[in-house]
Design a protein that fits this description.
heterodimer; A: Rossmann fold; Fumarate Reductase Iron-sulfur Protein, Chain B, domain 2; six-stranded parallel beta sheet; four-stranded mixed beta sheet; 13% strand; B: alpha/beta; Rossmann fold; 2 domains; globular; iron-sulfur (chain A); LUD_dom (chain A)
């Protein structure tokens, strides 16, 4: 019953807001069209763009890696971070996919998710139920109970604002003392090696600036040709997520630097001394070579399809392999985990294709995955 | 999730045997008319959807046990919808048929030779089997000299419009709503549940809106083009419980708008009816 209440509230809060944003800022639709073309260009030649991106990261003073599997990603992160560190994580579903948080904890680090939703599900020891709103399944009342049990400092009948304030107070010290910040990336510009991140909480800015080391982990599907395309991706993503304008847009190209003495650019300055970008493959490059599955890789993770899907509305986190839930998750469960079962639950309602900013014909992709799954069984 | 491999085997076996998805008494399919000619260039094509839809919930409850009880599937031919259910389905088909005839369309009907469209194979992702079976359906149409097919439900219409993706299909497919003259309503106020396929795959949402002359209670968050949810019916062969959860949620939001509900599809009718707090009618029952 609590899922029904929580998702109903989320739909009623979010869906009209997205309509309003798109009406007030119609240029977003033009940017979305351009972004689709830019992303397709990369996906049609992904190997080339991966190499180009890693070269660009190096030129910007950072370290770039391609991890074929989650195991490889964990190994790379493990070597960079080491043991006994305090790690703050901005929201990264790819980090979840690769099991980074649990791995670092097992390796002897103190690790805190700092996105509010991620923090809540870390406390609750639950999987994310939505690609950008991981705690969408929790009602305010449940959040209050959870915080009371795990960190204290909230009273019965707390307001949304009071609950957020308590988490802010708790995490502030973690940000200040963190040795490593780990984020995802909404887009990666192959021409400059720049990662683009949008957020509203400020936790990503904290996580990527305050610690001496910044590690970004994301999928190879997030590569776009240029920094201009990366800008489009973050604007489109935030608009279709109903969070426009985004409170913060972060661009990071290598470690911090300054050119204030004789205009000579030196590094580091106030921000991180090291910047690492890990690009995870985990089935994406193979999918990019399949003309139908390639469409799935266009997804920019706005999470809009979830809130228009009757099956997600009914089943929530039970539909898909977390973090990949909902219609996009049914595609991605196959791309990443080779699991065709979530696709079988597509009732071809078609709302998802109507609202997708990348115009992905999600029911068509899912029909194809059903076919592949049926052939596997046969 | 149900054992779809066994379901596939049952479907293919029955389609090969009698061009129906499961053993059925064909008299149920054909009982709605005796007046239409058996051959002609233009046919009304029911795919036996309205007639058999009342049995779908029974089949769907049986599917989780299909692997163990596969040998019992021939007994399905003994199942019959109730007299009231059958009369209602026949009434819908007669109204559509009469409305088409009234427009001067010379309709034929294939009676016992009318094959199932293969929609279920398509929707479950058995695309190879769908392609093979659809070719047989096409051959049947060609043998009978059919040049134009008038569909009456969205699943059949959708399946036929997909044939050309798999092979060369040169038969015209049109839906009844594109052809009929609608009457004024019955004076009642309704809300509406659009068929997902008509609305978002077949571009017929506006055509239905244009023909429905009764007063509709709409809410952008419930009946909007990209907010209106599925009835859950297409999910039933995969997971009946999940299908019911979708159906309950959909019926609940529609019940808040009106106690009278219009649907456009026989599957939506049988799926939503048990959960909707009020009366459900097919659009053909009201506007024809």
């Amino acid at each position: 019953m609590s899922w029904e209440i929580a998702v109903e509230r989320a739909i009623n809060n979010n869906v009209p807001r997205v309509y309003k944003i798109l009406k007030e800022h119609p240029y977003i639709l033009d940017l979305a069209k351009e972004l689709r073309e830019a992303k397709l260009k990369v996906l049609e030649n992904l190997d080339y763009y991966v190499d180009k991106t890693l070269d660009s990261v190096k030129r910007a003073g950072g370290h770039g890696y391609l991890a074929s599997t989650p195991e490889e990603a964990r190994e790379i992160v493990g070597k960079i971070v080491g043991k006994g560190k305090t790690v703050v994580m901005g929201k990264s579903m790819v980090a979840y996919e690769a099991g980074i948080r649990e791995f670092l904890i097992r390796q002897g680090n103190e690790v805190w998710e700092t996105d509010l939703g991620e923090f809540l599900i870390q406390l609750a020891n639950q999987p994310p139920s939505h690609i950008i709103a991981p705690a969408i399944h929790l009602t305010k009342e449940e959040v209050e109970k959870l915080l009371k049990e795990k960190i204290g400092g909230v009273h019965e009948g707390s307001t949304h604002e009071e609950l957020v304030a308590r988490v802010r107070q708790f995490l502030r010290e973690k940000f200040v003392n963190a040795d490593v910040g780990i984020t995802g990336a909404n887009a990666v510009a192959s021409d400059t090696g720049t990662i683009a991140l949008i957020e509203n909480e400020g936790n990503i800015r904290f996580s990527s600036i305050s610690p001496a080391m910044h590690i970004a982990i994301t999928g190879v599907d997030k590569i776009v040709p240029t920094l201009a395309d990366a800008t489009k991706e973050v604007l489109v993503q935030s608009a279709f997520a109903g969070l426009y304008p985004p409170t913060y847009v972060n661009f990071t190209s290598g470690p911090s630097s300054t050119a204030d003495i004789e205009m000579k650019r030196v590094s580091p300055a106030h921000g991180p001394k090291e910047f690492h970008l890990i690009l995870l493959d985990n089935g994406r490059i193979k999918a990019s070579k399949d003309p139908v599955l390639r469409e799935a890789l266009l997804c920019i993770r706005c999470g809009r399809c979830h809130l228009h899907c009757p099956v997600y509305r009914a089943l929530g986190v039970k539909w898909g392999d977390p973090p990949f839930t909902g219609p996009m998750g049914a595609m991605w469960s196959y791309v990443v985990y080779n699991d065709p079962k979530p696709a079988m639950y597509c009732a071809h309602s078609g709302n998802c294709k109507e609202v997708c900013p990348m115009k992905i014909n999600i029911p068509k992709v899912l029909e194809y995955i059903k076919w592949k799954g049926n052939k596997q069984k046969a | 999730m149900n054992d779809l491999k066994t379901l596939r085997d049952v479907l293919v076996e029955n389609l090969e045997r009698n061009m129906m998805p499961f053993p059925v008494d064909k008299g149920i399919c054909t009982g709605w008319t005796r007046d239409l000619p058996r051959s002609g260039e233009t046919i009304i094509y029911t795919s036996c959807m309205y007639q058999l839809a009342p049995l779908f919930p029974i089949f769907n409850r049986f599917l989780p046990y299909l692997s163990a009880l596969k040998s019992l599937t021939p007994l399905a031919s003994k199942l019959k919808p109730s007299e009231a259910q059958l009369n209602r389905a026949y009434n819908v088909l007669r109204k559509i048929s009469n409305a088409l005839t009234a427009k001067g369309i010379k309709l034929a009907y294939l009676y016992d030779d009318e094959p199932y469209s293969g929609a279920l194979l398509l929707e479950l992702g058995f695309l190879d089997e769908f392609q093979e079976y659809a070719k047989k359906v096409y051959e049947r149409f060609k043998e009978r000299g059919v040049k134009r097919i008038i569909t009456v439900d969205p699943h059949t219409h959708h399946a036929l419009t997909r044939y050309s993706e798999f092979f060369s299909f040169d038969v015209e497919v049109v839906n009844y709503i594109e052809l009929v003259e609608a009457k004024e309503g019955d004076g009642n106020v309704y809300t509406i549940h659009d068929s997902c396929l008509y609305s978002r795959f077949l571009n017929l949402r506006d055509k239905f809106r244009e023909k429905i002359k009764v007063k509709l209670v709409e809410d952008e968050m419930v009946t909007g083009k990209d907010t209106s949810f599925c009835c859950g019916g297409p999910l039933a062969p995969v997971d009946f419980k999940a299908s019911e959860e979708v159906a309950k949620a959909r019926a609940k939001s529609l019940s808040k708008l009106s106690k009278n509900l219009l649907v456009q599809c026989p599957i939506c009718y049988v799926t939503l009816s048990p959960h909707f707090e009020g009366e459900v009618k097919d659009v053909a029952e009201v506007i024809l």
